[in-house]
Amino acid sequence: MNTAKLEPGRGSQIRERPHSSKWWVLAVLSLAQLIVVLDSTIVNIALPRAQEALGFSSADRQWVVSAYALSFGGLLLLGGRISDRWGQKRTLVIGLIGFASASFVGGAASSLAMLVAARAAQGAFGAVLAPAALSLLTIVFREPADRTRAFGVFGSVSGAGAAVGLLLGGALTEYWSWAWCLWVNVPLAAIAVVGAVILVPKTTGSSHVVLDIPGAVAVVAGTVLLVLGFTQAETSGWAAGSTIALLASGIVSLGVFILIQRRGTHPLLPLRVVMNRYRGGSLLGVSLSAIGMFSVFLFLTFYLQDTMGFTPLVTGLAFLPMILGITVMSIAVAPPLLRRFGPRVPIAAGSLLGGAGLLWLSSLSPESSYATTVLPALVVLGIGMGLIFGAGFNSATAGVHLEDAGVASALANAGQQIFGALGAASLSTIALQASTSAGNLGRAAAAVAGYDRAFLVAAMVFFVATIATAVLIPKNAPVDPNATSDSPAVPVHF
């Protein structure tokens, strides 16, 4: 049996060449990717019912979202290195088993602490699962034609996974229980594990791959401390010593992370990847857009269910126009704009439209209708997000040298998750403070006032992103001629 080496810098070997079962391997890897993507949206729909069942406060509900995003985003770069060191197949199987176990514990949670811990564990195992699946895809599909088809299928699963999560989460919550939004991962992961063991070719890791544990600890600690600081501000105020101490500690930790990356011989994140204005500006656009995305899924879910009286299933359906807009724009519109103008035009225009959509949502009232207020805003948001994702994820990984391709891919998703978690925490604090100030208006009106304030601040972030990306990204930025043209596509996690 022949041995085929991976690309330089990947550090692993595949012990057997792909055979006629490679399309079944694609099915297994796509299922693994679907499991990870599902949990970015499925739990959001169930969150109001979970809050009611477990009795946690509105101030704490963002932790259910942030715990997953922080551990997934913070450990994603390390997860890629782990997969290179241990071998992609072994890492994939371990990630699937761990993810399923954490999902089972989360569904059985009897307290907020238990649920948040399970969500953090889901994110951690997802952080090793996702890079392993993507790496295996590049190993199994070597022929250009097959590779294009495989990445097309894999990418469509990533995009459709958000819609599947919304609909499946709504149906499971409405007809069974919110817990099934987590338990559904168990049978899906079991199928994927069996398929991986039988079908996925064996790979061996490389002991030469060095894990940057200090860097991983610093980046996770920094982001968690910042989220804690934003959350503390809700109860103690922004000027409180505890709030300032947490925020300052988070900033210092992230500064230490940058220092480690600059001076380390095996950095988790080679700074050359982000120092390029072309890629750095694209990464900034993708990361800042996550603040708006997370705020919509978090606050609009509660508005639709608690204020408008939508059922969980109808709530999932209500989000589909935005997902459809993202899918169409990212596939059909953003690529030709990217080829014609470079990333600056579609990313800046997408940020402007995203801000407009959120500004529209900031006018919600208890009497607003879905058709005249929510739907148009979601359509505008979907168009804007589609432009950002279609151009931003492509540009964030284009022009990298071969040894940095995996890092750039992971970084795009990591930035989205981390910024989304930070946005959810800070906007939750802003929303709760606005709701408290409007308490004399009644419970429903006060809650909507909080959502409106959060949407308004998120819109301002988008408008800042519009200016920043327009200035930072060069016009018609060229791709580095020495860079690889074989970089893997980056799946989008909504």
TrEMBL record:
Chief location of this protein within or outside the cell: membrane
Keyword GTP-binding carried by entry: no
Domain Major facilitator superfamily (MFS) profile: 25-477
Subcellular location: Cell membrane
CDD domains: MFS_MMR_MDR_like (cd17321)
Keyword presence, NAD: no
Membrane topology: Multi-pass membrane protein
InterPro entries: MFS, MFS_dom, MFS_trans_sf
Pfam families per UniProt: MFS_1
Highest taxon of the lineage: Bacteria
PANTHER family: BLR6921 PROTEIN, MAJOR FACILITATOR SUPERFAMILY MULTIDRUG TRANSPORTER MFSC
Protein's recorded name: MFS transporter
Species for this entry: Arthrobacter flavus
